[in-house]
Write a structure and sequence with these properties.
Distance between the termini: 42 Å
CATH topology of the largest domain: Aminopeptidase
CATH superfamily of the largest domain: Zn peptidases
Bound molecules: zinc ion
CATH architecture of the largest domain: 3-Layer(aba) Sandwich
Strand content: 25-35%
Largest sheet: 13 strands, mixed
Amino acid sequence: MAAVLKIGGIPIKKGERKKIQLSVSNLYDGTDLSIPVEVIRGKEDGPILFISGAIHGDEINGTEIISRILKQRSLKRMKGTLIAVPVVNVFGFNMLSRYLPDRRDLNRSFPGTENGSLASRVAQIFMKEIVKNCTHGIDLHTGAVHRNNLPQIRADMSHTETKQLAFEFGVPVVLNSSIRDGSLREAARRKNIPMLLFEGGEALRFDEKVIQIGLQGCLSVMRSIGMLSKKKLAERREVFIAWSSHWLRSPVSGLFRKLKEVGAHIKEGEKLGQITDQFGKSLGDIISPYEGIIVGELKLPLVNGGDALYHIASFHNTRKVQKTIKQIEEEIFQSFYD
Ligand SMILES: [Zn+2]
């Protein structure tokens, strides 16, 4: 690692903490639009970790997780470098939108090009100024608008170092998701940078439980790779990898009456909800075709035929997964009263 790290042309020396504005574009009226970045360099060399939020501009739990990481006193004794990017999609963030103004999805636009679409240009700047400088990464997401996700890690578990990070993050549910074309995860993988994607909660909301779990997960990864002191390393929680996951869709249009929430253990043949018309007449029950854990749910009761209602993940030991989820929730609940 060079003695001087440069981001957006700004040098950051060992032991320095700096806020940088990465210029990306202008608004219609010429107002500068830039990605805010905070860089913290320890006095000693070590890993270089980026933590990013709001790549989908309306997914703001990650923004809050990052702001809480930045308040940790332990950062004063940190080894290596933390590059914190609480809002990557600054356009979407300001418009309360997942997308860029051209309706493109930034997380399908990586690695991007200098002369491509607006999304592609933002992706290219993020790769060049942030990812290229890093040895590890964590990207923070939530469910899309009207969708709530159980806190979970999505990672390429065929990559040894990534798998190790996923276990260290300590969230019980890990989805071994195949990498999607154009995602930041795919671009990082191509550069052989181990990267996790954390999902939890829903768009445009702060979810305290999810924020706590995400915060603890990020700090745990920082301890495990030697950035933070391992003195306080808690006993590692058990982590379960889903062997498959499926969306359960509404057969018809109507009003969705939900009977189950994220985190619930469901059995094969169990009734999960009902679709009715506006008079309350049943149009059909929603029956689970398999056993599993609900890892994602639709919050909006108005549905069209084909809309995804529940995301269900299957595990070898579903009961144990649910028990671990409950334990974590209780620990968090307890910590509010300590
Ligand atoms: Zn997202």
